[in-house]
Amino acid sequence: MSFRSFHRGRFLLALTTALTGVVAVASPAVADPGGTPVTAAPLSVAFDTAAARYDVPRDLLVALGYAESRLEMHASTPSAAGGHGLMHLASNPGVRTLDEAAALTRLSPAALRTEPTANVLGAAAVLRSYADQAGLTASARDDVNGWFGPVARYGGASEPSVARLYADTVYDLLRAGFTGRGEAVAGRPVAPRRGGLERAAVLGGIGTLSTDYGPAAWAPASTSNYTVASRPGSHPVNRVVIHMTQGSYASAVGWFQNPAAQASAHYTFRSSDGAVTQSVREKDIAWHAGNWTYNTESIGIEHEGFVDNPAWFTDAMYRASAALTRSLATKYGIPRDRAHIIAHREVPGATHTDPGPNWNWTYYMQLVNGITGIGSGTVTTEASSLNVRSGPGASYPVVGSVADGATVSVYCQAVGSTVTGPYGTTSVWNRIGTNRYVSDAFVLTGYDGYIPNVPRC
Q: What are 432-456's pLDDT values in tens digits?
């Protein structure tokens, strides 16, 4: 069945909403060019409807959205690649998923950019069109492992290794399982059929490693996106500039390979595990700061995520990035202070706000300066478990729990509300994970309060 003949009309979403009994009040209706409103729905209904309408595996659709945005719309903040919404529908000279979605769904580009329901529908329509072009039959579409090629194409990367990275990220999420924004996708065995991309080099594998910084993979940016130089001979290197991608890791790496980008960074870090890819040699001038002098004299480091969502700022990414910055400071004699390790927003003339107010400079700079220890302790509580909170204080929301007697890692320590527990009264709180805190009054660490060589948050 061709994609065009599969299109079932503009009334289906409203009909599905009516059948499920869901009344959406969070968002206005989306009008298509024919004037029929497409009612905005809760995210779960949006995924249900899009998956059914375009015969795309639902969990695959959710995983792609989670990889791109953690299922956040970020409607007012497109990515550097011109990607919009939770599904990163893009419109740039190399990737036209937004335009394709508009043609396939007959929804307006404005709706596709800003309305979650439309955004998910658009992504599903594009994926289905790619599946049809790849020759996936109805039975083949039922097997999630057959969608690797369409997913890789959706990412828009021009280099096979980055296209594989993009799709592998989605399938890794399906394998591990994840939760976010009310969506819970259980892990399962996956064996994606990569086709020609099976032969693509795996970033970070033999032959794809950086020669400037050992832990980094090498995925060169387009030569249209940076200036060849011979630093530090041609220009001093005296700053490090910290950025946020406003998008996913694979999308950022792929964007730098697009000749139309007119932008690049030397390094990009992944949120989940601190993996890093180099796109521009340190001797060359990346176009990242929006200020030529700062470009010529700095190293630009991108970090996966969005400025308004601190969940992207993991300890793994902080520590891996700080290790690189520490190495750069040693190599080029850059002072390890905030006058020389700066935010993009601190560059003269900057129009960007990254890395934003949620970036923990205190923690990062301590890591850069070698305070890199990780403490440990044993939780002690009279109850069966201890509440874990999103910040250093009893007024922060509970985001989980940890069992009595459990051993926890302490990545950094912060001053918060005063609490009394088995180990006295204290205002010290221990961060045991990304946005996860417990009071030191309930943790036996072997120290009274602060743990030596563990950073302050």
A: 999 999 999 999 999 999 999 999 9
- Ordered DSSP codes for 340-382: TEEEGGGSTT----TT-TTS-HHHHHHHHTT----EEEEE--S
Q: Are residues 92 and 7 in the same domain?
A: yes
Q: Are residues 132 and 7 in the same domain?
A: yes
DSSP 8-state class, residue 440: G
The secondary structure of residue 427, as a DSSP letter, is E
Residues 309 and 420 in one domain: no
162 pLDDT exceeds 70? yes
Ranges 136-140, 233-237, 285-289, 349-353: which has the least confidence: 349-353
274: its two tokens: 């601190």
Q: Are residues 170 and 222 in the same domain?
A: no
CA atoms within 13 A on the CB side of 334: 27
Residues 380 and 241 in one domain: no
Question: Which range has the worst mean pLDDT, 38-52, 289-303, 319-333, 363-377?
Answer: 38-52
Same domain, 351 and 381: no
The residue from 335, 368, 401 where one domain ends is: 368
Give pLDDT, residue 395.
97
Retrieve residue 420's tokens. Answer: 């009394």
In this structure, what token pair is assigned to residue 128?
A: 């289905």
Query: Could you tell me the pLDDT band of residue 334, with boundaries at 50, 70 and 90?
Result: very high
Taking the C-alpha atoms of residue 115 and residue 40, their distance in angstroms, rounded to an integer, is 7
In the chain, how many domains are there?
3
Distances (CA, A) of 362 to 81, 349, 453: 30, 25, 14
The sign of the dihedral angle between the CA atoms of 141, 146, 149, 155 is positive
- Identify the helix (H) or strand (E) that includes residue 17: helix 12-20
Domain limits at 120? 3-180
